[in-house]
Amino acid sequence: MALTFGGASSDRVEITAASSINDLNPFTIVMWVYPTSLVNNKKLCQKGLFATGGFFGWNLNGTGGNLETSVRRAGASTSYITNSTPLAITNKWYCVALTYNSAASAGQVHNMYIGDLTTIVSEATYGTATDGSGSTSAQAAGEKLYVGNFGSANQAFPGHIAFFGMWNRELSLGEVQDQQFQPHKTSGNVVFIHLGFNGTSTQPDWSGNGNAGTVTGASQSAHVPLGPPFGLSRHFPYTVAAAVPSLDSWYQLTGGPVRENHIVTSY
Amino acid sequence: MATHRLSILGFATLPDASGNVWFEPAVLTQTNDRYPGLVARFKDTGTKDSLGIRFPVPNNYVSAPVIEVIWTTTATSGNAIWDFDYSSAAKTASLDPSADEESLTVTTAAPGSSQTGVASQMSATAANIAANDILQGKLSRDGASSDTIAADLVVYDVIFQYSDV
Who has the most CB within 10 Å: A17, B37, B67, B117? Predict the structure, then answer.
C-alpha cells in the first residue's frame, strides 16, 4: 500500500521527535514516491522549521522535476538543487535518496540519488551545491519529522509515497541500490515505514525504534509494485505451471524448500 | 510414507502494526557475517506481537501437522512463548474467518549459548487441515504471557511439517 498526499495542502504523516531522529548528522533518507504533479516547494519530508532553528528539508524545486535540499548549519546553511530534472515525468514511481554528512568533502555534503522501477539509482547532477559551514544547528525541542509535508503543514507532496526509511549514517550509493527494490532494515536504520499498510491509522515503524507516524488527511492507495514488502521470496520464479511430480522433486529442482507465492497446481 | 517440511514464510508474510516485529539481515546480530539472509526479529515486549502468514497446504498432506519455529537469541536463560493462531479452509471457502480455528502454544527454554538455534514445535489438529487448503495464521511471541527471555528473539525460519500417509 501507499498513502496519497496533496488532496489537501495539510496532508501529512507526523513522527514525534525522538533522540533516534533528532539532529542527525550524518543521515540518509530513502523514499519511493509517485508525483502526480510538479509544484515548487512541495515537501517530500522535513524536520524542524527554517524560522525556529535547525532543520533539514527536501522538496520539489520549480515545476520541471528538480529536487532541493537544505540543512541549517551555524555558519551558513547547505543548499543543493538538482539540474537533471530527476522527477521530470509525473505519474511514475521513483526511488529517491538523500544523504547529509557535514564532514564530507566539498561537493559531497549532500548526495541525491534517483532511480525507478527499471533503472538502478544513480546520483543526480546539481545546479547548486552549497556546502555551508559550521556545526549542524540543533532543531527546536519537540520538532516533529514530517513525511509528505513540513511543520507549517501547507505544502503537501502532490502524489503517493509508499516507503520512507531513515538511517543515522551516510549510506553509500551501493547501499542505496541495495535498498531500492527490497527496502530492509540495516545497520543505523531509525525509521522504516511502508506507508498505508495499516490503512490511515498509526504508521508502524518497523525499524524497532518506535518512530511510528500519525496520518492527517492522506488516503490509502496502491503500493509501489516491488513484490513482497516483507516476504522472503524475491529470488524464485513466481509461477510453476503443473506437472511437478512430487515435493521432493521440486526440492531437487530448486535446491531448497518451496517458500513463495507459486501458483502450484501439483506437488 | 514420508515426512515433509517446507518453509511457510512467503509473499504474504507481514509483521503486525505494533512495530515490534520486523525483518533485517542476519548479519546485524551475527558476529561472523557470512550469510546475509533476512531474519525476523521479535522485540522483547510485554505484548503479544505477531507475524502474519499464509500458505497453500500441499496436495499430498494427510496428517501430523506441526508448526516449527527455528529461532535464536542472545540470552541464555528464560523461556520463550510462541503462539500460532490459524484457520485452514478450502480455497473456495471463506477466506475471511471471524475466529481462529485453533490456537497453538509452546514454551521453550532459551539456548544454552548465544546465537544457538532452537526448534519450537506446535502440533496442530490434523482434521482441521486438508490438502489444498489455504492456511492463514499468526505466529506470535507472547510477551503478555509467561515469556521470560529478556532479549529479542530472532526467527530464522518457520516450517510446516506433515506426513503424506
Answer: B67
Confirm or reject contact between B132 and chain A (CB < 8 A).
no
pLDDT confidence tier of residue A258, bands split at 50, 70 and 90: very low
Side chain identity at residue B142, one-letter code: D
Question: What φ, ψ does residue A89 adopt, rounded to 5°?
Answer: -95, 125
At A158, which helix (H) or strand (E)? none
Of the candidates A189, A246, A259, the beta carbon closest to that of B10 is on A259
**A83 vs A256: CA distance, rounded Å:** 48
B6 vs A208, A231, A257: nearest CB: A257
Count the residues in chain A.
267
Closest Cα in chain A to B29: A187
In the numeric block, which cell numbers belong to residue B26?
Answer: 542476519
* Distance of alpha carbon A148 from the chain centroid: 10
Q: Report the complex ipTM.
A: 0.86
3-state secondary structure of A66: strand
Query: Could you give the domains of chain B?
Result: 3-163 (2.60.120.260)
Asked if B106 contacts B122 with a C-beta cutoff of 8 angstroms, the reply is yes
| Residue A147: strand, helix, or coil | strand
- pLDDT tens digit sequence for A90-133: 999 999 999 999 999 999 999 999 999 999 999 999 999 999 99
Residue of A201, A206, A258 with shortest CB distance to B15: A206
What CA–CA distances, in Å, run from A118 to A37, A165, B25? 21, 20, 24
Collect all residues of chain A within an 8 Å Cβ-Cβ radius of residue B12.
228, 231, 261
Give, in order, the Cα–Cα distances in Å from B130 to each of A24, A213, B95, B161. 53, 41, 15, 13
A252 at interface of B, judged by CB pairs closer than 8 A = no
Can you give the pLDDT at residue A228?
81
What is the widest separation between alpha-carbon atoms in chain A? Answer: 71
Q: What angle do CA B108, B111, B115 make, to 5 degrees?
A: 125
Interface test with B, best of A1, A195, A220, A232 (most B CBs within 10 A): A232
Q: Name the residue facing B19 among A204, A229, A264 (closest C-beta).
A: A204
Grouping H, G, I as helix, E, B as strand and the rest as coil, residue A252 is helix
Question: Which residues of chain B make contact with A264, given a CB cutoff of 8 A?
Answer: 56, 59
| Alpha-helix runs per DSSP H in A37-150 | none
Q: What are the chain A neighbours of B49 within 8 Å (beta carbons)?
A: none
